Amino acid sequence: MNTTLPATSNPGLGILSVNASGDIIYVHTNTGSGGSFVNCANTGPASNLTADSKVSLNNKNLYFATNDILGKNHVGIGYDCTPALPAKLSVIQTHPAFANSNTTAISGFNNDKSNDFYHTFVGAHGKAFGEQINVPKAQRANLQTKPSLPLKSSPFL
Length: 157
Fold this sequence. Notes:
By secondary structure, this protein is largely without helices or strands. About 5% of the residues lie in helices and about 10% in strands. Among the domains are: about 1-50, no CATH class; about 65-105, no CATH class. Strand 1 (about 15-20) and strand 2 (about 25) form a beta hairpin. The N and C termini lie far apart (about 65 Å). Mean pLDDT is about 75; it is low at about 145-155.
């Protein structure tokens, strides 16, 4: 075992472990299986998953908190780090070659069950409650919103 004098702090995110020979070794925990969050400028192995991955919520919720800077605190799926994301949740489906297949950017299924007919089940839902404050209030009352198109399962929408 090598030591340093004076004692130094941990040089990274690693931990000490014991290998099969009984030696104490330093293990870099941020590069073991990849997939940890890194700055967009980092293109090293920590930003690459090495296998399909999942997160079990264990009957808990996952929140992405804070919304105090306009245009920030957004989540992008399918985007690289360069463009500003256009919405709180932005999804883009762009296959690098001809897909020659049906593709879907966002899919939502609701498989809940009910034993009465008073409840509805929705696959995707959204509302916009913004207000155009530069339009006089008297004119705002006359503005009509366009009804949302019904969501259909079709490759041609």
